[in-house]
Amino acid sequence: MAATNIGKTKRSTDELIDGAVNRQQDWLENRRAFTRKFLQRFNMFKKPEQNEKNVVKKVKTTESKNRAVLRDYWFPIVCALLVVLIAVLVMLFRINAPVKVIAPSVPEPIVRTVKNTETHTTPSFDLVRIEAAGNIIIAGRNVRESNISIMINKKIVATEHTNKDGEFVYAPSEALKPGNYVIRLIDSDKNIKSEDSVFVYVSERGYKNSVSLLMTKNGSKIMQAPELMDGDLIVSKIDYLENGRMIVTGKALPRLRVSLSLNDEYIGFARVSDYKNFGLGADIGKLESGKEYKLNIRLHDGEGTTIANVEHQFVMPEMTGDDDTFYTVRRGDCLWIIARNFLRRGILFTMIAERNNITNPDLIFPKQLLQIPTKN
Asked: What's the pLDDT score for residue 296?
C-alpha cells in the first residue's frame, strides 16, 4: 500500500513540471509572435530599404540636373576657359619679352652765379679756455678762407687761416704765465678788429681758479668760470654790476645761512631755500680796475659756526658800461627776491616784470632767463 502511494506521487510531480515548462514555452512563443506583429505593424525592418531607394533616387536626380546645367550653359563656360587661357599666354609673353625703357628728355642745366653771402663780417670769439697746464685755446669765426691774427695784450702773437666755414682754432704750445690778459682778433686781409674782447685771468693756483670773460658793448659773459666749491657749499656765479652791487648765487644745505665778505670785511648774508639755492646781493661800492680783491663766501650752521668757506681771489677787469644783466630763474625764486638782490629793493620787481613782458609777476619758471635793468 505504501509502495503504490509513492509511485503515484512521483508521477504527479513529473506531470506538474512538464506542464509548467510547456506553459512557459507557450508564453515565450506568444511573446515572440506579439513582437513580430508589433514590428511588422511599424514596418521597422523595411525603412532602411526605403532610405536606400530614396538616396539612389536623389543621386539620380542630382546627376540629371548637372547634365541639364552643362547642356544649357556649356557655351559660356567654354568662353570663360578661353579667356583665362589667353590671359595666361599674354602674361608669359610679356615676361619673356625684352623691356624697353624710354628716358625722358632732360634739359641742359642752367648755371647761375650765387652771390657770396657772408654772415661774419667781423672776427668773433666762440671759445677761450685755459687748460690744466695753463695752455690756452682760442676758437672763433671770420670770413671764410681768410687770414685772422690773434692779439694778446696789444701784441700779435699768431696768424691763422679760416676754413671754408669761416672757423679757426689757435692753441699755442707754450703756457701762459699767471696774470691778466686781454685778447682781441684782427682780420689781417681787411685790417678789421673784433668788436668784442676777452679778459683772461690765469691764476697761480691752477686752471680751476682761472677766469675767461667775454667783454662786449652790451655787457660781459663768463666763458670759463672758476670752480668754487667747498663741501656742501657751491658758488655757481658771481656778478658785479656797474652800479656797485655784487650778486653771488649758488647751492648749499637748505635753511642754513650764507655770508659774504670782501677783503675780510663783512657785507651781508642770505638764507638757503628749501630747494638748496641761495642768492645774495649787497652794495660793495666801486671796484678799481686792475686791483686784486679777495672774496669769501661762508656757510654757517644753526649755531653760527662756519662749516664751509669758498675763497675767490680775482683782479677787477675794466667795466664795459653794461646797462643790463641777465639772471636764470631757479626753483624757489620770486621776482621780489631777485629785485632785492639786483635792484636793492624788492618793490622794484615791477621793473623786471615790465622789461621781460611778464603779465603775472607771481608766475615765473625755473631756467627762465630774465633781463635785469641794473640802472635805476
From this structure: 94
- Shared-domain flag, residues 141 and 153: yes
Residues of the chain with pLDDT under 50: 1-8, 45, 47, 101, 103, 106, 114-118
Residue 115 sits at φ, ψ, to 5 deg, of -75, 140
Sign of the dihedral through C-alpha 310, 316, 317, 321: positive
Nearest to 192 by CA among 184, 204, 202: 184
**pLDDT tens for residues 22-43?**
888 888 888 788 777 777 765 5
pLDDT for position 320? 52
pLDDT at res. 1:
45
Asked whether residue 8 is assigned to any structural domain, the reply reads no
Distance CA 251, CA 139 (A): 31
Mean pLDDT of the chain: 79
CATH of the domain at 219: 2.60.40
CB 349 within 8 A of CB 335: yes
Closest CA to 185 of 162, 210, 163, 207: 162
Q: What span, in angstroms and rounded, lies between the C-alpha atoms of 329 and 331? A: 7
pLDDT at site 2: 45
- One-letter amino acid at 48 equals P
CB 230 within 8 A of CB 221: no
Is 262 in contact with 286 (CB distance < 8 Å)? Answer: no
CA angle 216, 222, 226 (to 5 degrees): 150
- Dump strand ranges (E) for 108-166: 124-130, 136-141, 147-152, 155-161
Number of structural domains (the chain) is 3
CA pair distance 342, 242, nearest whole angstrom: 11
Cα 18 from chain centroid?
Answer: 111
Residue 215, domain extent: 120-226
For residue 256, give every residue at least 6 positions away whose Cβ sits within 8 Å of its Cβ, in sequence order, or none.
Answer: 271, 272, 299, 300, 301, 302, 307
Distance, CA of 335 to CA of 348 (rounded, Å): 9
Question: Cell 632767463 maps to which residue?
Answer: 369
* Partner residues linked to 161 by β-bridges: 147
